[in-house]
Design a protein that fits this description.
Oligomer: heterodimer
Strand content of chain A: under 5%
Helix content of chain B: 25-40%
Number of domains of chain A: 2
Radius of gyration of chain B: 33 Å
Structural class of chain B: alpha+beta
Number of strands of chain B: 30
CATH topology of the largest domain in chain A: Butyryl-CoA Dehydrogenase, subunit A, domain 3
Strand content of chain B: 15-25%
Number of helices of chain B: 18
Largest sheet of chain B: 5 strands, antiparallel
């Protein structure tokens, strides 16, 4: 929960109409950037976030004050925005499923990683955030979404799982595999 | 040259990034637009308070001004002019139409319903959603139909609003559409349906809410959990949703620094929402194997399966929680990833083998079907006697009712398909008779002084019909036909009038039984619903009559003679048709049993049951025929089952005493099992064939 979330939730629960502008001001930009990363179009991002906030308002109208007070508002707004984005671009909201075999495979991979991986080494490759963002864009979509949400939007794995309507284990696997690919890309770039 | 190209590329990238940053740093330019669309803000743009001037602004060329005018009109409440607002419902701008709907929705009882209903076909989801919200606030002024229709809207926000509106209708709202909405692809709709079910309340909502606790989405799970705790505090607070939530926190809610990801391996699969049902089934199966062996007549070992609902609950809900906590503890202590994975693999393998053995074991002991509890009862029933029990015609379900008015449906055949939940039909409910139709459990019960027909399907969707009856409601006798299509009502100790009803709750005019004397003490309806059998007690006489009537109240003679007269001091308390309608077994409250068979005459040819211990009265009125009509079961000394040969009258078998007094028994359609209910809150399935 972000600092100020409790305050805004209390205000929303008390007077939704008067405090909704404050909620939008708190989250407008980060949601816009969230969408912008995916669409690349500022206008589309604006439209999507606008619609997301309208839908969020209609939802808040339905909630009781008690429900509003207990809302995890940040991931909730991301979840709504993600849904609008998916509808907007016509993509499926559900990333590809992961088989149990794949999980086992990743578990094995994890063993090797734990023995060999030096995560801080990757930082040396990723001195600039821009370069990192560009590399993330080259990842397959399901890895890209999860890595972006986790590292750029700073959403927890559980929040990502909620947004994508996926089991958390899938998020972990995608995160892990995406990072492995990113490592390789960084290494390739350095050599190149 | 290559270096130049790279520099150029880098420049372009830097420029692109700068542009992106510029966008990011830009002011929240869209906020005012949303505010205007929603009609929010300080309304400084519209300074006038004169209604005429505000109405004039409804034609303002700028849409945001029209929205602001509508908002002001809405704020006027009872003073607001309705017609001008209605006229704007056709505005070209969706924000204006939506604002008009909102304004109309704020007028309380002055809100015009018809114009709002027309906006449900608006092209804009925002208008449709606003309209649903406005209509939902009207509650009793609007039927549920528009909202049910809106549950099929293409837009998820509209569907969620429709679920909310149905919830506002309380128990007037039909249950089925809300339950169906729990399967909507959009989490927001499922969440709204959960909250609406909580708002609606009434019978049939607990089962769906329990199911929703296992939804893939955490918001839906949390909503179901909160709703259950608030509306049904008697349900154990511990829940699968809790488990998932806690697991999420312990393993996932740590934000890890970039590229320092503590990847969680496959052990977490065991704790995932999609797989949590496995431990539930496993424990249910383990419970089913908790049986005691008893000796049958021919020396074979037979099993009594004792299903304690409390145990079922604790093992299906509480124990997995315990297991998961243990797993979490182990996980946190784990240091070596290789050993951890091997250990997890072994645990998973053992579990899988255990599950497989359990399945095979049950299938072997009870064949067919595999008898086991697959229902997770979520309430401690141990202090509440289980009174009635009945099999569905296909033997798939068992339904039981406790004296606390809780109806539970147990899925017997399909052990992978849980039917979680139960239906409370009323704490003061007294079940008079129940049977299954082809699809639904049907109960005739007195609920708060009213006679009701309650139909419940295997998913606990419930319909209730109020039954008008001329009979004395405090002392009714009700009997179902075994085909589940008809039932008959009479007054115990009352006059000779009976009412024949069908499964839709329609009852014929009361029929007076011709040539009737005495008062009715027991009642039975033939399997096809055409013949009514009564046991009569003639005042001042030891003669007890059993007579059979047609639907018109005329005495008929299916057994050579129209009346079977038996001399005994105590009244007949139970009478039951054989499945083939060619025999009637009756029981007195002194433990006497006899069969009146086709072809037998008065006091001649009937089978006198050779009760081996007449000093021990047969308690209760629990009688059940085997489906082939060759045997029937009764209860002896409250705690033992007896099986009789209907032709010879010989006692075939007496079971060992059970732990509590037996309240009811029912022979399964496949003839291989007897289901028993007990006053100690347990339910048993007894295997008959070896």
């Amino acid at each position: 929960m972000n600092p100020g979330d409790n305050d805004i939730l209390g205000l929303l629960a008390t007077d939704l109409e008067s405090s909704y502008e404050q909620l939008m001001s708190m989250y407008w930009q980060q949601l816009k950037v969230f969408v912008l990363r995916r669409t690349g179009s500022l206008q589309d991002a604006e439209d999507i976030v606008q619609e997301a906030f309208i839908r969020a308002y209609v939802a808040l109208e339905r909630y009781t004050p008690q429900q509003i007070r207990t809302l995890k508002v940040r991931p909730w707004l991301y979840k709504i925005t993600w849904s609008v984005y998916c509808n907007y671009v016509g993509r499926s909201k559900i990333p590809p499923a992961i088989s149990l075999d794949a999980l086992e495979e990743d578990s094995q991979q994890e063993i090797e990683d734990d023995q060999n991986e030096q995560p801080e080494v990757i930082f040396e490759h990723a001195e600039r955030r821009y370069e990192l963002e560009e590399l993330v864009k080259t990842l397959p979509q399901h890895y890209r979404e999860v890595i972006s949400m986790h590292f750029f939007e700073e959403l927890t794995q559980q929040e990502i799982a909620d947004i994508l309507s996926q089991p958390i284990v899938n998020v972990r696997v995608h995160l892990h595999r995406g990072l492995k690919r990113l490592q390789k890309l960084l290494a390739t770039n350095k050599v190149g | 040259m290559e270096h130049d190209n790279r520099s150029e590329q880098q420049k372009n990238q830097d420029a692109e990034q700068a542009q992106l940053s510029e966008h990011i740093d830009a002011a929240n330019s869209g906020v005012p637009n949303v505010m205007a669309t929603l009609g929010l803000g300080k309304m400084t743009r519209l300074s006038t308070t004169q209604i005429e001037e505000i109405i004039f602004d409804l034609d303002h060329p700028e849409w945001s001004m029209r929205v602001a005018a509508l908002r002001k009109l809405g704020k006027l409440g009872t003073q607001a002019p309705v017609a001008p607002i209605v006229s704007v419902l056709a505005d070209e701008h969706e924000a204006v139409r939506s604002a008009a709907v909102r304004a109309l929705g704020s007028l309380g009882r002055r809100t015009p319903i018809e114009p709002l209903l027309a906006t449900l076909n608006d092209t804009s989801w925002h208008v449709r959603a606003a309209s649903i919200m406005a209509l939902g606030k009207q509650r009793e002024r609007v039927s549920g139909e528009p909202f049910i229709g809106a549950l099929s809207d293409t837009d998820e926000t509209v569907r969620a609003a429709a679920a909310w509106a149905l919830g506002k209708q309380g128990e007037r709202a039909p249950l089925a559409p809300l339950v169906a909405a729990l399967h909507d692809p959009a989490w927001s709709v499922r969440e709204a349906a959960v909250l609406a079910l909580g708002e609606r309340g009434g019978a049939g909502v607990v089962g769906p809410l329990l199911t929703a606790r296992m939804d893939e989405d955490s918001a839906v799970r949390a909503a179901a959990e909160t709703t259950l705790q608030q509306a049904y505090p008697e349900i154990e607070a511990t829940s699968a949703a809790d488990l998932l939530q806690e697991e999420d926190v312990t393993t996932a809610d740590r934000r890890v620094p970039l590229f320092d990801l503590p990847f969680q391996s496959s052990a977490s699969v065991e704790l995932n929402a999609n797989t949590i049902s496995q431990p539930l089934n496993k424990n249910a199966r383990r419970e089913a194997l908790d049986s005691e062996e008893i000796d049958s007549l021919d020396g074979r070992k037979e099993k009594i399966f004792s299903f304690k609902r409390k145990a079922a609950f604790s093992q299906t809900i509480a124990e997995p929680r315990h297991e998961q906590e243990q797993q979490r503890t182990q996980q946190s202590k784990r240091r070596h990833p290789v050993l951890g994975i091997v250990a997890r693999g072994l645990v998973a393998a053992v579990l899988l083998v255990g599950i497989a053995v359990s399945w095979l074991g049950i299938s072997h002991v009870l064949r067919p079907p595999a008898g086991q509890i697959v229902l997770t009862a979520s309430q401690d029933f141990s202090t509440n006697a289980v009174n009635n029990i009945v099999w569905s015609h296909d033997g798939q379900y068992l339904a039981s009712v406790g004296n606390n008015g809780i109806v539970s449906i147990w899925n017997i055949k399909s052990d992978g398909q849980q039917t979680p939940g139960y239906v409370p039909i009323g704490t003061n409910a007294r079940v008079l008779a129940m049977n299954w139709s082809s699809t639904n459990l049907q109960i005739v019960a007195m609920v708060n002084g009213q006679l009701k027909l309650i139909q419940i399907d295997s998913a606990y969707n419930t319909k209730t019909f109020l039954l008008p009856t001329i009979n004395t409601q405090s002392n009714l006798l009700v009997a179902w036909s075994s085909n589940g299509k008809h039932f008959v009502i009479a007054t115990k100790g009352g006059d000779n009038r009976v009412e024949l009803c069908d499964f839709s709750g329609d009852c014929q005019l009361p029929v007076a039984l011709n040539s009737f004397s005495g008062s009715i003490t027991a009642l039975a309806l033939s399997s096809d619903g055409t013949s009514i059998a009564t046991a009569n007690d003639r005042s001042g006489s030891t003669d007890k009559n059993i007579q059979v009537w047609n639907k018109q109240g005329q005495l008929i003679s299916p057994f050579t003679n129209p009346t079977y007269r038996v001399s005994m001091a105590s009244p007949i308390i139970a009478i039951t048709w054989s499945p083939q309608n060619d025999e009637l077994v009756y029981e007195s409250n002194q433990g006497q049993l006899a069969v009146w068979a086709r072809g037998s005459g008065i006091n001649n040819g009937n089978t006198t049951i050779n009760n081996p211990s007449p000093s021990k009265p047969i308690s209760g009125a629990a009688l059940s025929w085997s489906p082939d009509g060759k045997r029937f079961a009764s209860v002896e000394s409250s705690k033992q089952i007896q099986i009789w040969d209907a032709t010879s009258g010989d006692l075939l078998y007496t079971s060992s005493p059970l732990t509590g007094p037996i309240n009811d028994l029912a022979w399964s359609p496949d003839e291989n099992h007897l289901a028993l209910t007990s006053a100690d809150g347990t339910l048993h399935i007894w295997g008959i064939s070896g």
